[in-house]
Amino acid sequence: MGRQQRAVRTRRVILEAAAAMFNDFGYDATTIGGLIERTRLTRGGLYFHFASKEQLARAILDETSALRPVPPQPLKLQEWVDMALLLGYRLPRDPLLGATVRLSVDLRARALFGTRWPQWTDAGEELLCAARDRGELLGHVEPAEVARLLTASWAGIRLLDEALPDGELCTQFAVFLELVLPNIACPGVLAKLDTSPHRAAALDRAT
């Protein structure tokens, strides 16, 4: 393995370890000393990649600022559903994504770094606007309002699941979608939408 490849792999190891600690302990209680112990790197080795805990947090947020695009579908509303299902599938499996939610609800971290809620909400709104333009949404639906609701639900469902675990997170997202979709989708479109949580694993492999 070349030096550059080792550096990329080490950087990823550091980011994932820091993300796990932010998830487990919160921003304030996570320390560089604890991260060095977890990664078994030297202090110099860690500082070669990240000069501070603040830089680590910013790097994690930057890595997850844009949600990975979903595969194109005949219905734009299905793409919006797929985005929600994929997030539910990835949150417990991707430490950086999980840490982004944790940092975004941590008052101190939020004051320092802001959140990624605007980017995530914009991604949902873009798909919903495209669905509206294609006649897939009921006439009363405001894409910005629905996109904001989905982002808030992502965070709330994730945090509640951590406190009161109750099965697969993606299944909880699917239940949420099944409750929301009859209020926003035209009947002919609603009948064609697939909200199965099992869909998410196949989508993840395809992206």
UniProtKB/TrEMBL annotation:
What single Pfam family name could you report for this chain, choosing any that match?
TetR_N
Q: What keywords tag this UniProt record?
A: DNA-binding, Transcription, Transcription regulation
Q: Which residues, as ranges, make up the DNA-binding region of this protein?
A: 31-50
Q: Which residues form the HTH tetR-type domain?
A: 8-68
Gene3D superfamilies recorded for this chain?
Tetracycline Repressor, domain 2
- InterPro entries in the record, alphabetically? ArpA-like, DNA-bd_HTH_TetR-type_CS, Homeodomain-like_sf, HTH_TetR, Tet_transcr_reg_TetR-rel_C_sf
Going by the entry's taxonomy, the superkingdom of the source organism is recorded as: Bacteria
What protein am I looking at? ScbR family autoregulator-binding transcription factor
From which source organism is this entry? Streptomyces lanatus
**Upper taxonomic lineage:** Bacteria, Bacillati, Actinomycetota, Actinomycetes, Kitasatosporales
